[in-house]
Amino acid sequence: PTSTAATAHTAVDYTDKSVVFRIHVNANGVVIPAAGLTTAGGKTLSGLSVTDVLPAGWEFEAFADGSQYILLSGSASTSNNKKVTATAVLASPKTLGAAEGTAVTASKTAATAAAGETLTFAFGRMDGAYVILVRAKPTTAKATAYFSKNGTTAERNTATLKNAGETELCGDWEEVNVKSPLLNKTKEETKDKALKWSVEYKPCDLPRTADTITDTLPVGLDVRILADGSLDLSNGNITITKLTLKADGTYTDGESVAVNSGNVSYDTVSRALTFHLADTAQAYRFTYITDVTADG
């Protein structure tokens, strides 16, 4: 007669690295009084609690207004999808403990090596279906691990409904995909048959120890240099553009950066073109043109 489900209420907010999870409770809307309820099968439901366990390295974060969680009443699901339609806010407590005006008491358990923090919501009674919103994010160390490489990491948040004295009545989980496009390189051919390379550095606003990006050119591809052997920085041969991170993880072009010997260098012996990062937390797009001087 009861169920719980967890869904990602929003995708990752990449600007602050947070996720809001939506926990659906008692989706069929059964009323369970404080004295408990005995089902047709003879099972007694009482002392119910909902537990939300974060992935390892994650912690709960208050909402912008300071609320530790948001409890909403809801209408029961008319299908078998275990989803509750929220109807009204019942409480948005700034502290854990008993939520005024409700029969819900919340408590937090510290993270372990195997799992992140845990929130438990004890229901003195259930007046119908509910939705609980919680906000969470990875620790700084965990976020740094995500965004120090290219790739996507799937993390699982698990919600369970428990009966007094029992391990679990039912449960559900939701995966969140954390995407990191730290470094990407593409090319296109120009009208004069040269190659324009684009390197995008996207650290998700997190500082890094490494402060250079180096591209070693093969023989037959040459950057444009002046007679004295220095880089030709004119006519857009090399450009640097700041990129601005958006909440959905995409980037927009920001201001152009003046290119000079302080932020780009070229070693004619090793053929290494190096961009020097003034701010390792700042995203950039570097472009440079090479002439094809030999068959590859």
Can you walk through the features of this model?
The chain is mostly beta strands and 296 residues long. 2% of the residues lie in helices and 48% in strands. It is built from 1 helix and 23 strands. The strands form 5 sheets. Strands 1, 2, 6, 7, 8 and 12 form a 6-stranded antiparallel β-sheet that branches. Strands 9-10-11-5-13-14 form a 6-stranded antiparallel β-sheet, with no helix packed on it. Strands 15, 16, 18, 19, 20 and 23 form a 6-stranded antiparallel β-sheet that branches. The chain starts with a strand and ends with a strand. The model has no long low-confidence stretch (mean pLDDT 92).
Quick recap:
The protein is mainly β and 296 residues long. 2% of the residues lie in helices and 48% in strands.
Properties at a glance:
single chain, 296 residues, mainly beta, six-stranded antiparallel sheet, 1 helix
Q: How many E-type strands?
A: 23
Shape: elongated
Radius of gyration, taken over Cα atoms and rounded to an integer in Å: 27 Å
Major sheet, described briefly? 6 strands, antiparallel
Topology:
Layout: E1 4-8, E2 19-25, E3 37-38, E4 44-45, E5 49-53, E6 58-60, E7 70-75, E8 85-91, E9 97-98, E10 104-109, E11 118-123, E12 129-138, H1 140-146, E13 150-162, E14 170-181, E15 183-189, E16 195-201, E17 212-216, E18 221-223, E19 238-245, E20 251-257, E21 264-267, E22 272-276, E23 283-292
